[in-house]
Amino acid sequence: MSSVTLSASASANAARRGNVLGRRLLIISAWLVFVLFLVLPLFIVLSEALKHGFGTFFGAIFEPDAISALKLTLLAVGISVPLNLVFGVAAAWCVSKYEFRGKSILVTLIDLPFSVSPVIAGLIYVLLFGAQGFFGPWLREHDIQIIFALPGIVLATVFVTVPFVARELIPLMQEQGTQEEEAARLLGANGWQMFWHVTLPNIKWGLIYGVVLCTARAMGEFGAVSVVSGHIRGYTNTLPLHVEILYNEYNHVAAFSVASLLLLLAVFILLLKQWSESRINRLKASAGEE
């Protein structure tokens, strides 16, 4: 009997050691992939940007074309993200709260930018709003320019970032159900009061996360914006396009310097997200203590 017990104990210990070894191998593999494909490239970008010192680095960043590209990038993000915020909340509300004809089509269209190449999206806008496009004559007649101007860049950015807010909110709203809204309606709350006091507290984390993803994606968009912008220096070049031009001109230090600026902006967005989450958690904790 004791030999059977010892054998079972040895088997259990061997299985436990095997599980520990497998877990450690998975963790090490994950860290290796993380370092090789994320940390190392970022380190190379920063090291190349600072290869010739901070003077060259700041000179590339504060060069007039780089400043213009930065302003245009922030402007495009500042317009497209609020538009996607409104659309994402409205679309998620409709999909999760109502049943209507074409609901499945709407859900499919929300996911469309994930499957369509950004370059194709840019070409579609050129065919619609370009000088020789479908609406080109009417736009020219009314002196409205969309392609090779800010409106085209905003349209392209909105298209590629449409799914992020909506896709974060739809499952949250579906999980929430409609009972709380119905109770608020019975208590006399209007639509805005129901959204602000009932729906928003339940979706705020998904909303923040969706906005952060949307902002990061909008800042780094290249393909669609490249097609509709025209690559006009100082006018329609965003930061990613400016990096491409500098790199193609073999001005690698300046290209990596501007690329590092994009990296710093992305890190700032992530830090802002973490700060807002910790701030809200502290407010909730203090409210609970009271």
UniProtKB/TrEMBL annotation:
Keywords: Cell inner membrane, Cell membrane, Membrane, Sulfate transport, Transmembrane, Transmembrane helix, Transport. Gene3D superfamilies: MetI-like (1.10.3720.10). It holds the Pfam family BPD_transp_1. Its main location: membrane. The complex is composed of two ATP-binding proteins (CysA), two transmembrane proteins (CysT and CysW) and a solute-binding protein (CysP). Part of the ABC transporter complex CysAWTP (TC 3.A.1.6.1) involved in sulfate/thiosulfate import. Probably responsible for the translocation of the substrate across the membrane. This is Sulfate transport system permease protein CysW.
